[in-house]
């Protein structure tokens, strides 16, 4: 069984999901007037990692998703599910 952290180019559905996640992450960051550096500091990662998550090039693990949800006060469902919008 393939793992989610494999190269997203090999799994189109995961690639689409991560692109949508990246769009949501960018929206939340901009909504809260945070730079990539400021968000990176809150998450304990580099700003390049934040950039790569926003473009769908990096797949965050569950622990990182929880941190992101906590920072923006949203649910994991809102972050991960394509059919749920963020208000």
What would your notes on this structure say?
This protein is mainly α and 87 residues long. It has a single domain (9-77), classed as lambda repressor-like DNA-binding domains (434 Repressor (Amino-terminal Domain)). It is built from five helices and no strands. The chain has helices spanning 12-31, 36-43, 47-55, 62-72, 76-80. The termini are far apart. Residues 1-6 have low confidence and may be disordered.
Short description:
The protein has about 90 residues and is mainly alpha-helical.
Q: What share of residues is helical?
A: 55-70%
End-to-end distance, in Å?
35 Å
The CATH topology, please? Answer: 434 Repressor (Amino-terminal Domain)
Estimate what percentage of residues fall within beta strands: under 5%
CATH C-level class is: Mainly Alpha
Radius of gyration: 12 Å
CATH architecture descriptor name: Orthogonal Bundle
The CATH superfamily name is: lambda repressor-like DNA-binding domains
Question: What is the mean predicted local confidence, pLDDT?
Answer: 83
Q: What would you call the structural class?
A: mainly alpha
| Tally of individual helices | 5
H and E order: HHHHH
Poorly predicted spans: 1-6
Q: Can you tell me the number of structural domains?
A: 1
């Amino acid at each position: 069984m393939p793992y989610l952290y494999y190269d997203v180019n090999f799994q189109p559905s995961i690639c689409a999901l991560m692109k949508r996640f990246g769009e949501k992450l960018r929206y939340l960051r901009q909504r809260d007037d945070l730079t990539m550096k400021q968000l990176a500091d809150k998450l304990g990662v580099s700003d390049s990692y934040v950039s790569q998550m926003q473009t769908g090039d990096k797949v965050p693990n569950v622990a990182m998703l929880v941190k992101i949800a906590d920072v923006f006060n949203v649910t994991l469902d809102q972050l991960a599910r394509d059919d749920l919008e963020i208000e």
